[in-house]
Amino acid sequence: MSKSEDGLDLSRRDLLRIAGGVAAANVLGAATWGALELMVPSTVDAWHKSVCRFCGTGCGIQIGMRDGRILDVRGDELAHNKGVICVKGSMTRALPYVEGRLTQPKVRRNGTLVEASWDEALDFVAGRLSHLRDQYGAGVLAAFGSGALTNAEKMVSDAVTIRMAANSMTSRCGQVWTLSCASARVCWIEPDLTTVSSRCV
């Protein structure tokens, strides 16, 4: 038996008992979850493969649909996550039905956000980027994306930035470091291409 600095007496046997209790609780929790899954009948007509976009891991998921609505989400056994998804991933089924969710672009007119077509919104963004480049130089433009970007989305971001800004100042959080989901941080590569700068926003 050893005595810790805080005065707690803990023997090896006590430690093993605590570890065994934690392990038993985990097994019981997993078994209960599995039993509940088996008790609830599936009302899904078809399962569709997709990717969870909550973080940069990109776990494979299957989306259960019926009558054009998402009813369930489960992990894809054939993906790298081997059918396991976290709590956030399991809640993706609710996202399309969140009240107030944007379903089309909005632009600001006279200080108020109003709905716009995709063509109008993209033309507005392209015009603003071109204006900034022409007024302040290509060095003011950069792109920073989430770690949840797919490779194709990252390639498009790179192509647009290089074409618009004539530089390669693009990044996503996974390339610089892992960022906390609780705070937003903007990162950029300085013109000398050797320094990475950042600030919280």
Annotate the secondary structure layout.
Elements: E1 2-3, E2 9-10, H1 12-39, E3 46-51, E4 60-66, E5 69-75, H2 87-90, E6 106-109, E7 112-115, H3 118-136, E8 143-145, H4 151-165, E9 170-172, H5 173-176, E10 185-189, E11 196-200
Parallel strand pairs: 8-9
Antiparallel strand pairs: 1-2, 3-4, 4-5, 6-7, 10-11
**Tally of individual helices:** 5
Q: Which residues sit in consecutive blocks of at least 5 with pLDDT less than 50?
A: 175-185
- Averaging pLDDT over every residue, what do you get? 76
Calculate the terminal CA-CA distance, rounded to whole Å: 51 Å
Number of strand segments: 11
Main pleated sheet? 3 strands, antiparallel
Measured by DSSP, the beta-strand proportion falls in 15-25%
Element string (H = helix, E = strand): EEHEEEHEEHEHEHEE
What structural class should be given to the helix and strand makeup? alpha+beta
The number of distinct structural domains comes to 3
For the biggest β-sheet, the strand order reads 3-4-5
Please give the share of residues in helix: 25-40%
Q: Rough shape?
A: elongated
Radius of gyration, CA atoms, in whole angstroms: 24 Å
